[in-house]
Amino acid sequence: MRVARSRTVGPVIRFEKVTKSYPGPGKPALSQVSINVDKGEFVFLVGSSGSGKSTALRLMLRELRPTTGRVYVAGKEINRLATWKVPRLRRQIGTVFQDFRLLPTKTVSQNVAFAMQVTGRSGRDIRRAVPATLELVGLADKGGRMPEELSGGEQQRVAIARAMVNDPMILIADEPTGNLDPTTSVGIMKLLDRINQSGTTVVMATHDNGVVDQMRKRVVELDHGSVVRDEATGVYGFQQH
Ligand SMILES: Nc1ncnc2c1ncn2[C@@H]1O[C@H](COP(=O)(O)OP(=O)(O)OP(=O)(O)O)[C@@H](O)[C@H]1O
């Protein structure tokens, strides 16, 4: 079952000269950032701690609003969306974080089902979609387990299943391999790559040079809130010649 999507013309995500200042003194977290992400792209957002990666992701979700400039998702300027339309925007964006954020008192299946329940989907849809999505992430046999009975890599797969079960247009991942060892990280990156190959746009913030170098995807680097590099198939750091 696929959710009907509106047609998008142009980039799926567009930042137009976005500046974001938090209250208080200090430089803006983002300064005049312009980025376009096309449908189906896989983009790494890299940069040292405090460079503005999480701020950029939170602007895409309208958890934050730009101080100046415009953020468009699926062709709509999201700062101008009516508040009642924000849940619909967020349904089009799955999110995954470093710390998994699973509900500890619910089983794996219930964690994934919960993402559908909160959007008002029918029991019939949920019973169909949850096993299919657990299968997608390689956890078909773990639906009855509790999160604490799973390894870190498996917990992150559950979080990815929960992010994907509503068939979002965009997957935003903030340091998804940050708590995982290198081998487990490779498995998670293969899964994210597969999700991307099937049409979901992926934006991933990371410090993990190993995964960036291995994937050879687009790399956008932030430094003190400015884009200092945007390469179609990049590595984590500038290449040494
Ligand atoms: N809620 C906030 N209030 C005030 N300043 C903030 C807030 N969130 C972030 N900042 C500041 O904005 C800048 C960018 O932070 P941000 O979290 O976006 O960076 P980051 O690249 O994601 O860092 P990290 O890799 O450590 O998560 C930093 O200087 C940070 O201190």
UniProtKB/TrEMBL annotation:
<keyword id="KW-0131">Cell cycle</keyword>
<feature type="domain" description="ABC transporter">
    <location>
        <begin position="13"/>
        <end position="241"/>
    </location>
</feature>
<dbReference type="GO" id="GO:0051301">
    <property type="term" value="P:cell division"/>
</dbReference>
<dbReference type="InterPro" id="IPR003439">
    <property type="entry name" value="ABC_transporter-like_ATP-bd"/>
</dbReference>
<dbReference type="InterPro" id="IPR015854">
    <property type="entry name" value="ABC_transpr_LolD-like"/>
</dbReference>
<dbReference type="Pfam" id="PF00005">
    <property type="entry name" value="ABC_tran"/>
</dbReference>
<keyword id="KW-0067">ATP-binding</keyword>
<keyword id="KW-0472">Membrane</keyword>
<dbReference type="InterPro" id="IPR027417">
    <property type="entry name" value="P-loop_NTPase"/>
</dbReference>
<dbReference type="GO" id="GO:0005524">
    <property type="term" value="F:ATP binding"/>
</dbReference>
<dbReference type="InterPro" id="IPR005286">
    <property type="entry name" value="Cell_div_FtsE"/>
</dbReference>
<comment type="function">
    <text>Part of the ABC transporter FtsEX involved in cellular division.</text>
</comment>
<keyword id="KW-0132">Cell division</keyword>
<protein>
    <recommendedName>
        <fullName>Cell division ATP-binding protein FtsE</fullName>
    </recommendedName>
</protein>
<keyword id="KW-0547">Nucleotide-binding</keyword>
<comment type="subunit">
    <text>Homodimer. Forms a membrane-associated complex with FtsX.</text>
</comment>
<dbReference type="InterPro" id="IPR017871">
    <property type="entry name" value="ABC_transporter-like_CS"/>
</dbReference>
<dbReference type="InterPro" id="IPR003593">
    <property type="entry name" value="AAA+_ATPase"/>
</dbReference>
<keyword id="KW-1003">Cell membrane</keyword>
<comment type="similarity">
    <text>Belongs to the ABC transporter superfamily.</text>
</comment>
